[in-house]
Amino acid sequence: MQLPYSETIDIIYLSRLFDKKSESYKLFWFLAIVDKVSDGKSYLTYDELINWMVADAWYMVTEFRLNLGPSDTLEALVKYIYQVSGLKTNEKKDVILSFLNGFNDKNVAEMKRTIIQNVPYRLQAPFTKQITNDMWKGSRKKLAENLNREKRLIYYFTELAGMKTAIKIQPEWCDYISKNKSANKKSSRN
Q1: 91 part of a folded domain
Q2: Nearest to residue 150, comparing CAs of 134, 129, 132, 172?
Q3: How many angstroms separate the CA atoms of 36 and 169, rounded?
Q4: How many structural domains comprise the chain?
Q5: Which residue range(s) make up the domain with 55?
Q6: Predicted TM-score (pTM) of this structure
């Protein structure tokens, strides 16, 4: 994967992010970050990112019935929300986001928890040097603490509170993403 050069970030690790894409989570998580950073945001919550992922995958799943992976929870989440919401297959992203921001449902909450179990942490795996296999299997709080000790990650965890958990995108990554949005989105979709 060919990405735009940077003197400040490790592009080789960014290109390895999508080496193994059996599920779509990492792709949609990264694209949500790219879109949010491009809109000038650098402080994001899990809920905000997952809602964006749902809205981004909406048309592909509801209209084209694309399969996002063999056991993809994002796809199941989109299908479930489509069934219970009354939203159209071609609904605008802002309408979907508005609906999701006011929607409380235990099935949705459970599927969102499944998504955040690994994606926010595993996305950073290519950048880590000190994280061991045992750390990946431990508590998410401890894993976040260990990741926060790493250098040159895309983001760091600022609050750990379920779906309200927040990440802070690093300034050098915000600059890179903003300058190269179209190249980053194109590369992540290949």
Answers
A1: yes
A2: 129
A3: 10
A4: 1
A5: 27-185
A6: 0.91
Phi, psi of 45 (to 5 degrees): -100, 160
68 belongs to a structural domain: yes
Give the tokens for residue 162. Answer: 């379920």
> For residue 184, how far is the Cα from the chain centroid?
14
For the chain, count helices (H), then strands (E): 11, 3
Is residue 128 one of the residues assigned to a domain? Answer: yes
Joined tokens for residue 7: 């003197």
Show pLDDT as tens, one digit a residue, over the chain (190 residues): 678 889 999 888 888 887 766 668 888 999 999 999 999 999 999 999 999 999 999 999 999 888 787 678 999 999 999 999 999 999 999 999 999 999 999 999 999 999 999 999 989 988 998 888 888 888 999 999 999 999 989 999 998 999 999 999 999 999 999 998 876 555 555 4
Q: What angle do CA 46, 20, 59 make, to 5 degrees?
A: 55
**Is residue 190 included in any domain, yes or no?**
no
DSSP 8-state secondary structure symbol assigned to residue 89: T
Tokens of residue 132, six digits: 């061991």
Residue with tokens 């809920």: 47
Neighbours of 100 (CB within 10 A): 20
